[in-house]
Amino acid sequence: MPNTILIGAQWGDEGKGKIIDVLTEESDIVVRTQGGNNAGHTVFIGKEKYVLHLVPSGILRRGKLCVIGNGVVVDPVSLMGEIEGLRQRRVKVEGNLVLSETAHLVLPYHRELDAQRELLKGKHKIGTTKRGIGPAYGDKAARTGLRIVDLINPPRFEAMLRQKIRENNEVLKAFGAKPLSFAKVHAEYRAAGDYLKAFVANTVILLHEATQRKARILFEGAQGTFLDLDHGTYPFVTSSNTTAGGACTGSGVSPNRMDRVVGVMKAYTTRVGEGPLPTESADIADMLHAMGREFGATTGRARRCGWFDAVATREAARVNGIDELAVTNIDGLDTLETIKVCVAYRDGSAQYDYVPNDIEVLSRCKPVYLEFPGWRTSTHQVRRWAQLPLKARQYLKAIAELTEARLSIASVGPDRAQTIFL
Ligand code: GDP
Ligand code: IMO
Ligand code: MG
After folding, report:
1. CATH fold of 4-95+203-421, please?
2. Bond from prior residue into 235 cis (ω within 30 degrees of 0)
3. Beta strands at 406-411 and 419-421: parallel, antiparallel or unpaired
4. CA 234, 240, 278: angle at the middle one, nearest 5?
C-alpha cells in the first residue's frame, strides 16, 4: 500500500511515534500535516530514546525524506533546537528534512497568550501544553498569521513582526502580562530563519511529484481523534484537525491519492489535560504510574488513565475511515486479573453507543463495561501472534471487533522488535 495516513484513535499519545517508526521501513517519505510542538512522539532504537516534537519520526531511519507540511504550526526556535539535538546525536537531518513555506509560525506572543488565557479560565482551563498552538491557529484562521515564507524574507518579516508585536503587546497589557521586546524576538527569530532557510521548499509540488513517481508516503498524525477541533470533546481539544482529513489539507495531497488509514490505539485509554474521560479509573492510573509509565512526552505531566473505551474508538473508526488498527501497550495490562472494556455510556435513563456532542452530557456519562479475564503473564518477549496468551488474543480480537476495524499490528513494548504483525 503506497500512501498511508496514520492517526491517533483516542486522546493522543497512543504510541504513534513507535508505529510510525515501524511503518517508515516500508515508506519513502514521512509527512507531518498538523499540530506543532505540542506533540511528543517517542521512538526507542535499542536503549536510545528519542522524542520528536516537530520533526517527523521517520528522520530516525536513514535515507527517508521527512516533510513538515503546510498544516503544521512551526515554532522556528524550537524546530532549530530539535534539529540541533538530533544532529548532536548523529541523526542525519540535512537533505532529509523539508519545511513547507506556507506553514504558519508560532511566535512568543502566541505562547504568552496561551498561558494567559489558561490562567484566566482558572479551573475551567483546557490544560494546554502552553506551546502557543491555539493562538497560532487562531491567527491563521483570522488571516493575521505569519508564515515561513515571511520568516525567510528579512525586510518583510521585520515589518510584519513589528506590527504584530505592537498589536499583541496591547492585548498582553490588558491581561496584566509583560509586553514583549520587538528587538529581542526579532533577533531570535531572524537567527532561526537563517538557520532554517536551507530546509524550506514548496512541499505541495514536492509531494505531488512524489505521488506521480509512486513514492510511498506515510502521513504522521499528531494528537488524537478526540482532540480534533471539529470531532473532539470541544472545547477540550487542540486547534487542528487531527483526524484523517487533516492529512490532505495539511499537505496538499488530495484524498484520492490516499490508500489506507491506520488507527493507533492503546489497549487502554489515556488523556493529558482537562476534559471528559468517561472510563477514567484511579486503579489503572495508579498501577501504570507505579510502573513508571504514562507520563507526558512533551510536558512530563502524569497522564490520566482509564479502561479501553470502545464507544470512542468506534467513533474514531467512522470519522477517520480506519482500515487497520495498531494496538499498543498491550503489555501494560499483563498483570491484571480482570480487564474492563466500555461498550456504552449511560446518563440517567439515556444510553449512548456513540460519543454525545454536548460536553455536559458527556461529562455525566458513566461507562457500561464488559469484563475480560486477564492473561497474567508477561508479553514483552512475544514476537508472533500465535505466541500471545489465548486470553490476550481474545481481548485484542474483542476490542478490534467492538471498534469495527481490522487488527493489523499488536505492540508489546516500546522497541521496534516488540511488534507483532497479523
Ligand atoms: P505518541 O504521541 O502517540 O507518539 O505516543 P507517546 O510517545 O507520547 O507515548 C507513548 C508511550 O508509549 C511512549 O513512551 C512509547 O515509547 C510507549 N510505547 C509505545 N508502544 C508501546 C508498547 O507496546 N508497550 C510499551 N510498554 N510502551 C509502548
Ligand atoms: P501527541 O502527538 C496528548 C492536549 C493537551 C490539552 C489539549 C490542548 O504526542 O499525541 P494544546 O497545547 O494543543 O493547545 O493543548 O490537547 N494535547 C495532547 N495530548 N498528546 C498530544 O500530542 C497532545 N497535544 C496536545 O494536553 O489537553
Ligand atoms: Mg505523545
Report:
1. Adenylosuccinate Synthetase; Chain A, domain 1 (3.40.440)
2. yes
3. antiparallel
4. 35
Task: Give the Å distance between the CA of 252 and the centre of ligand 1.
Answer: 29
Rounded Cα–Cα distance for residues 117 and 193 (Å): 28
Task: Give the Cα separation of 168 and 338 in Å (integer).
Answer: 53
Q: What are the boundaries of each domain within the chain?
A: 4-95+203-421, 104-198
Which among 342, 237, 338, 236 has a CA at the least distance from the CA of 279? Answer: 342
| pLDDT tens digits, one per residue of 181-237 | 999 999 999 999 999 999 999 999 999 999 999 999 999 999 999 999 999 999 999
Residue type present at position 207: L
The topology (CATH level 3) of 104-198 is Adenylosuccinate Synthetase, subunit A; domain 2 (1.10.300)
Residue with cell 471528559: 276
- Alpha-carbon distance of 318 to 7, in angstroms, equals 13
Decide: 328 in ligand 1 pocket, CB within 6 A: yes
Calculate how far, in angstroms, residue 211's C-alpha sits from the geometric centre of ligand 1.
Answer: 30
Identical fold for domains 4-95+203-421 and 104-198, yes or no, is no
- What pLDDT is recorded for position 298? 84
State the Cα–Cα distance between residues 219 and 67, nearest whole angstrom. Answer: 9
Q: Does ligand 2 lie within 6 Å of residue 221's CB atom?
A: no
